[in-house]
Amino acid sequence: MNTQSNVCIIGAGVAGGALAAYLARNGMQVSIIERNLSEQDRIVGELLQPGGVEQLRLMGLDHLIGGIDAAPVKGYALFKQDQHFNVNYPVETGKEITGYGFRNGKFVQNIRAEILQSPNVKVIKGRALDLVEENGRVIGVQYEDEEGAVHTEKALLTIACDGSASRFREKISHNKNKINGYFVGLVLKDAELPYAGHGHVIVAEPAPVLVYPISSRETRVLIDFPGEQAPRKGPELKEYLLNQVLPQMPAQIQPSLRAAVEEGDIKMMPNCYMPANPRRQSGAVLLGDSLNMRHPLTGGGMTVAFTDVHRLGQHLLACKTADVQAYDEAVERFYAARHTNTATINILADALYGVIRNPELSEACFTYLKKGGKFAEEPVAILSAVSRNFKLLMRHFFAVAIHGVRTSKQFSFKRSYKMIGDAVRIVHPLVMSEKPDPFTKMALQLAKRMF
Ligand SMILES: Cc1cc2nc3c(=O)[nH]c(=O)nc-3n(C[C@H](O)[C@H](O)[C@H](O)COP(=O)(O)OP(=O)(O)OC[C@H]3O[C@@H](n4cnc5c(N)ncnc54)[C@H](O)[C@@H]3O)c2cc1C
């Protein structure tokens, strides 16, 4: 048994690393266990929305985006067949709001460099194996070091930030992750984007494609493959990308996409959905993807993680004593209220994915946003997580369906009824898992019964 830290974090990724950095710079003793400290080449967590940048700034950690050739992102562009337009992120009191695209591995290494040089952080290279319990309370973590020796790291609070495939979720959550598709990722070199410094959403058939800058010379392309079955890497996939996906892409990027497909460095990741449903366990808490996941279409995962890191961090920093009860109460407060800041990001991600996959709602959404003004700016403010206004999100979501009914070329009551019903069926489960207020709950339940 070692000397006890205040908190022991499992996983020095986006959430765990940022939490360690935030707590340590505010004087807390932290130990953090990470199984692989080398730079990873991943296709996840590469576009940080402005709302996430703001959370980093509030924690004094926004410098971690520096020195990695991050590409500023100032808005989104939407493409559907031969039509396209862009919407910039909102401007706040004359100040332009910016998100950033970067290589996830480089960003995570910046976070790790910060904690490695902190006197308050003990970085342990090892694989966490199990939570250690005493009288029903988690008192630390059992881990295996590089030589295979097993140790125990004790702490007042253990924080599992071990990502989407968490091995600790089972013990401290009621939920399991649901795979609803895969993103196939490629990197374009020196591609000229139709809208420089923008995330591009291409409403392609059969599923959307995302394109955004991740450095001054690189562009990430993520191609959605719906369903539980991962596409098989090989000649068939290449053929599909070249013959089915490539012709639907903006002309400017087609040559670099062809080159990337032919080079063959194709990566794949599952897209999961998992609302937060933690099980109270004294001495332990979940954070990041181990707690909560949503579709990556809107690039909201890191923003949710940093919002949670900031909030939990504030509660923990307020625990002045080594009183374990105070840590449990801090966790309780965090779980009870986190949805007020993360619900809109979670709901929008899977609602927008559902809308894009529904031909009529997808058309309605495209023409609604194309109207511009508040019809585009307010939804993009929610997407960027600059606004976390739940009512505004609901208003625009249902306004899209009503707009679809109004502008439908072949109006019929049956089609209109179906369109509104589809919208209700998409959003109902998403809202219900985010602790809605009693009125919203009742209204949605009623709508579900009607449609
Ligand atoms: C295809 C895809 C694209 C995405 N794109 C975006 C995007 O553009 N923008 C965005 O904001 N979000 C995006 N996300 C979501 C985002 O990547 C995650 O929300 C974010 O990375 C979560 O951070 P985390 O710290 O929980 O997990 P991770 O960043 O995965 O970190 C987990 C860490 O835990 C370590 N670990 C795991 N098990 C153990 C163990 N037993 N012992 C010790 N260490 C362990 C791992 O090595 C890792 O370092 C995307 C997700 C997917 C699937």
Please characterize this protein's 3D structure.
- This protein is α/β, with parallel strands linked by helices and 451 residues long.
- The chain folds into three domains: 5-68 and 104-175 and 277-339, FAD/NAD(P)-binding domain (3-Layer(bba) Sandwich); 179-272, D-Amino Acid Oxidase, Chain A, domain 2, CATH 3.30.9; 358-450, no CATH class.
- It is built from 14 helices and 18 strands.
- The protein has helices spanning 14-25, 50-58, 104-116, 169-172, 235-245, 254-263, 301-317, 324-337, 339-356, 359-370, 374-383, 390-407, 413-432, 438-450; strands at 5-10, 30-34, 47-48, 71-73, 75-80, 83-88, 91-92, 95-96, 99-101, 121-134, 137-145, 150-160, 178-189, 198-202, 209-213, 218-226, 267-273, 284-286.
- The strands form four sheets. The chain has a seven-stranded mixed β-sheet with strand order 6-5-14-15-16-13-17, sandwiched between helices. A five-stranded mixed barrel has the order 1-2-10-11-12.
- Strand 1 (5-10), helix 1 and strand 2 form a beta-alpha-beta unit.
- It is globular.
- 48% of the residues are buried.
- The mean pLDDT is 96.
- Flavin-adenine dinucleotide binds at residues 10-16, 33-36, 43-48, 127-128, 161-163, 167, 183, 269, 271, 288-290, 296, 299-303, 305.
